[in-house]
Fold this sequence. Notes:
This protein has one helix and seven strands; from the N terminus they run ββββββαβ. It has one helix at about 80-100, and strands spanning about 25-30, 35-40, 45, 50, 55-60, 70-75, 115. The strands form two sheets. It has a five-stranded antiparallel sheet with strand order 1-2-5-6-7, with helices on one face.
Amino acid sequence: xxxxxxxxxxxxxxxxxxxxxxxxxxxxxxxxxxxxxxxxxxxxxxxxxxxxxxxxxxxxxxxxxxxxxxxxxxxxxxxxxxxxxxxxxxxxxxxxxxxxxxxxxxxxxxxxxxxxxxx
Length: 119
């Protein structure tokens, strides 16, 4: 296969998904705000870093501001699935929404959450 001429464009690599396990995506509500949650049920790589199975949470970009849900990754080391992981994530995200506005989800030493801004 020839190399693409435009070196500034990144190309996706097609990989096989593990049999019987699929990503899940849902719109959920968190204290009146809609968020998108994506659950990946297997370890994966992001920006050269390996992450365990986990839940990606993304708030509405238009509603960004004070109290808005920041984009975050919450690991699920036990690979429990979207519903169970969301129950835990909901508590973490609520706690951070009530914290000072300058505090990131990733700043809490009591949880494994990773702010998407910290990737």
